[in-house]
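tool=predict chain=A
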Amino acid sequence: MADLHDDLHEYTALELHQLLQRGDVTPLEATEHYLARIDRLDREVGAFAHVTPEAALERARLVERDVAHAAPLWGMPLADKDLHPRAGVVTSYGSRAYAGDVPDESDDLVRDVDAAGAVSLGKTATPEFGLPSYTEPLAGRPARTPWDLSLGAGGSSGGAAAAVAAGMLPFAPGSDGGGSIRIPAASCGLVGVKPSRGRVPAGSGIDRLAGLGVVGPLARTVADAALLLDGLIAPRGYPARHPFALRPPGEDGPYLGAAIRGEGRFQVGVMLDTPWDDFTDIRVDDEPRAAVEHAIALLDRLGHGVEGLAPAPEPGYPGAFRTVWQAGAAGIVVPDGSDDALEPLTRWLVERGRERTAGELAEALGWLAGFERRTIARFSAVDVVLTPALAMTPRPVGWYDADDAEENFAQQVRFTPYTSFVNVAGLPALTLPVHDTEAGLPIGVQLIGRPGGESTLFALAAQLERAARRGRRRPPVW
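tool=predict ok
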């Protein structure tokens, strides 16, 4: 038993869940193990904004004593992204403006992971208010990919991804308004899932501007991601409780079965164009392109149909998306009323957002609604669309322009041009590693499903995961 407890991080989240259910490991033992991992490794990784060991140990004891084993995430360690308030725990939103702020109430996601029986170990790092696609807040340390500490973990769920990739957590929830789960998952060699709009009750996107931001899992395996997604959707058990009448088509899950079985033959469309092509020079580097080609070869070997999708230019997309992104930032409130505490990119987004008129916002929202319909129609002939996860390999820490906000935004677009349009369309998407660079960095691809098509994504991703035969690869930081 001593060896078992020493090596808990070597188990998948699903295996750890089974150990907990059998009583081979207790929630307290799992919590103590992962807290020790954080204490040893996070100084160089920068995954956590705040660690709460005393609260975590108290919570683990409470779960053991008072929470039914049937809770879907019973005893599982995870952490809250620093955008999600937890009562009594510092929540800084990655911003100096909220340094030391302690909320009185928890948000819906925090309450749901608690209801599912999970044990939070702290808050994972995020960029300021989760706005950029990299996690290098001036309020804290940069989050680095454990595969190469000179490179960033992506964002905005960069801390969550770095923690899972380094074995400091078995899995973690993240949020995704333009790629914020899939970008760090791809940067850290993980599986990241952006569910359909409306799928996760505590992070549906329905109550967000343009329906962009949703909640989903980051994990080391496809099955682990499905396990966490099931717990987020139905923390009190199925059928899931939904606060809105609007929901995506298809079943709410559970999805773990689809991820374990990995069955079915599907038609896959390959998309290499992006809606940002008229905004800046979009180039897919050799390594991400090779990952797509490798995935196509695996799909062909597995017997799936693969076809290229003809380009569909959308020159209105960059302007409409920027309008909505800036308008979303306009609502940021700084406690002391001074925007001077904000980082240059955030301040630029806030200022531009406040300059937008109601008419401009209405026009942008209407255009994006039309884009959603056109995108769903474009993809309707296939079951899944395959794209690069990122157009480049993970960027070096400090690569993004810290002063010129326009150039910073363009850099983010060039790095990750394949993610935001999926949020606009409300579609489910999953990224997973299938290949490696010569330097040993994992490179992923993105799978985009039909509305409500999570089961198909999990089934196909499981097949790719098996066919890639990557085994349990570990980063140098482990």
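The first strand starts at residue 48 and ends at 51. The CA atoms of residues 195 and 300 lie 26 Å apart.
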